[in-house]
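Fold this sequence, please.
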Amino acid sequence: MRLDGQYGTGAVIADLAGFPSVPRGKDDTVLDQESIQSRLHLPADQQFSRWESGLVRQLYDCPDVPVGPEGCRCRVVVATHPAPEKKSRIGHTRKGVVYELFLTHLPQDAFTASDVVALYLHRGAFEPVLADEDDEQDPDRWCSHSPGFPRSLADRLAMDLERAPGTGASA
């Protein structure tokens, strides 16, 4: 299950324990933890990019991190990328770098950091593709104006009734 940032707190993570979920973390104090800071000073585990935006994120996988005042322990995937010129609406910007937090209980041996981010970000990745197809050819152009294609459901039903035995003008 994908949850937006408003749900990315330790309390929600505790409630979802045992349920596969990937909320975007909203508590940027998680970034100040010693375990996260030391991990961010090492090379990234993976890179993640989306073809439609060209944005490349560096991914840092941090297992067993206490989140929120409750201290709920979960896996935190930190995604970083250079800050754009105008303020980023998503993530937390610090010293020219945007930090995005993804919280999960998904196991590291089954889901890479890239898998976790993809599960969150590609929550409907097919929609832009379908929208492109809609722009390329309006379905109305080939559906309702094709020879022999019924113009409405009522036309179709009327045609079926005319052909049914004992109905129509020939009955």
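The longest helix spans residues 126-136. The chain has two domains: 2-123, 129-163.
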